[in-house]
């Protein structure tokens, strides 16, 4: 049975960038030595989901792999101010609405994601965590991602395609940066 990989994270944390990196870097399932494809967006659940139970049900199958993208709170708040997407707020310290869920403020929304993701990582060996700032660190990102992917039996085969991906926009919506140089 082919293993399934899903990438999740709060809005503006690099989920599109990581999806592009893995798909364009000839990533393989090192256990079965087969090329992999990654589910993106809504299969089997949305990449920005707040429903932690859905994620846990997915991870109960050890063939399902999860990559969690995250960004430090300061950079994330800046990104949200630039492109809030479905996050509705007026001031960072006032109530926030996201998909009919209300949080007291932006920090509480951030903490909701972070605390739940940390809980998942502690309980499921088929889940890993990648930090956005390390993913865009051009000098070290290939080795960083490769090391993280190896923990769930994946490997990238093309550093050339990896580098090419870093020099392109990660998405064609929102206010995306042009490449990792601009992101830094």
Report the biggest beta sheet as strand number plus sense, adding barrel if it closes.
Answer: 4 strands, parallel
Which H/E pattern describes the elements? EHEEEHEHEEHEHHEHH
Spatially, the strands of the biggest sheet line up as 4-1-5-8
Q: Give the total of beta strands.
A: 9
Give me the secondary-structure topology.
Blueprint: E1 4-8, H1 15-24, E2 28-29, E3 34-35, E4 38-39, H2 52-59, E5 64-70, H3 73-82, E6 96-98, E7 101-103, H4 106-123, E8 127-131, H5 132-135, H6 141-150, E9 154-155, H7 159-166, H8 180-183
Parallel strand pairs: 1-4, 1-5, 5-8
Antiparallel strand pairs: 2-3, 2-9, 6-7
Helix pairs in contact: 1-7
What's the short story on this structure?
By secondary structure, the protein is of the alpha/beta class. The protein is built from 8 helices and 9 strands. Helix 1 packs antiparallel against helix 7.
3D structure, described in words:
There is one protein chain. This protein is an alpha/beta fold and 184 residues long. It has 8 helices and 9 strands. Helix 1 (15-24) runs antiparallel to helix 7. The chain is globular and about 50 Å long.
What labels would you give this structure?
184 residues, alpha/beta, 4-stranded parallel β-sheet, 8 helices
């Amino acid at each position: 049975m082919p293993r399934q990989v899903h990438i999740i994270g709060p809005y503006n944390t690099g989920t599109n960038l990581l999806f592009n990196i893995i798909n364009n870097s000839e990533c393989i399932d090192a256990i079965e030595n087969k090329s992999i494809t990654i589910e993106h967006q809504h299969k089997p659940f949305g990449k920005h989901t707040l429903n932690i139970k859905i994620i846990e049900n997915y991870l109960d199958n050890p063939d399902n792999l999860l990559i969690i993208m995250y960004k430090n709170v300061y950079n994330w708040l800046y990104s949200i101010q630039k492109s809030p997407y479905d996050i509705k707020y007026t001031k960072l310290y006032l109530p926030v609405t996201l998909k009919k869920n209300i949080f007291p403020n932006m920090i509480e929304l951030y903490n909701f994601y972070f605390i739940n993701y940390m809980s998942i990582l502690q309980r499921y060996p088929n889940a890993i965590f990648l930090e956005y700032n390390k993913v865009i660190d051009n000098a070290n990102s290939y080795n960083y991602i490769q090391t993280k992917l190896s923990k769930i039996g994946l490997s990238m085969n093309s550093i050339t395609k990896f580098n090419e991906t870093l020099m392109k926009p990660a998405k064609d919506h929102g206010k995306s940066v042009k490449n990792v140089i601009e992101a830094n």
